[in-house]
């Protein structure tokens, strides 16, 4: 296969609306990025991150050295949790404004990067709050420069225009999408991901798979999003088992990182629908639920629900995982069982009940899917009608 000809230690520059540096050792590019910021008279930045990974991976040492060599002062907000909240964004924004930061560097997975995108906007809008941003109470038109140092191979947020932050008081987990929050530069260095725990490795990788399952079947799907979906699924099917067997395999981590990145491009173009719209309520009411785990628990029922409308596309895209699909409408139950079995084989126990949900939660979850700001737009992109009955059925079958 063509992957065998790739030198994973050669740092590639991949251009979209973001410039992504991909490769083992890509963290060294932070030196050039810091120099670029300084050349634009940006002398103060805020780093937005979680509690531990930014240090334990060694990424922070590179960032500090690069900033100091370029004469850029910095402060750090390290309070971002999985499923970040508006309160965390407001705290980080207050710190940034008081410090005088004119750019944001995020270090982490999807949660820190999404929080950082929000901070990058709100620095320019000090009179507004994160809750107002995520309830669409105002329409921003700018953000300060954002740099993303990605530490997981699943989110795709290092190369897209989306961000997700929860409003805990309302059990809302909305999203925003603006062209001006594409990171200017992103670093995808698989060398920083070698110590990613097995459960997180599974969750983030299946997050990437979910991105393309939705992006190739939405009403906005295109040949481009479908092509990227096919390659994402192939790479995940090939390299996830290898990483499970040997977490230190740099080549396998490299191609899972690449798969995640192109999955981000796929859904940046083809957009999302059921799985993400229905997962957001799950982790809104249980913030400790990992986003990727929530997706893993409901995607088989989603695929069952949409299979009749997208059977040929899904049979093709999922062929590395379920090789005997024919692409006929009578395979809905088969794809539900086979995809669920594959996810379980990878190491995730199926069933929302195992994550603490019950039949009593179905109505509330269904209401949140329709009431949370922004999720209606995702539901409208599903290839079948997103009625309350359909949404409730997906949750129920996922129990």
TrEMBL record:
Residues 203-397 form the Fe-containing alcohol dehydrogenase-like C-terminal domain. It comes from the Bacteria. InterPro entries: ADH_Fe/GldA (IPR001670), ADH_Fe_C (IPR056798), AdhA-like (IPR045910), BDH-like (IPR044731). Pfam families: ADH_Fe_C, Fe-ADH. Keywords: Oxidoreductase. GO terms for cellular component: cytosol. Its EC number is 1.1.1.1. Residues 20-190 form the Alcohol dehydrogenase iron-type/glycerol dehydrogenase GldA domain. Gene3D superfamilies: 3.40.50.1970, Dehydroquinate synthase-like - alpha domain. It is an enzyme of class 1 (oxidoreductase). The keyword Oxidoreductase applies. GO terms for molecular function: alcohol dehydrogenase (NADP+) activity; butanol dehydrogenase (NAD+) activity; metal ion binding; methylglyoxal reductase (NADPH) (acetol producing) activity. The keyword Oxidoreductase applies. This is Alcohol dehydrogenase. It comes from Pseudobacteroides cellulosolvens ATCC 35603 = DSM 2933.
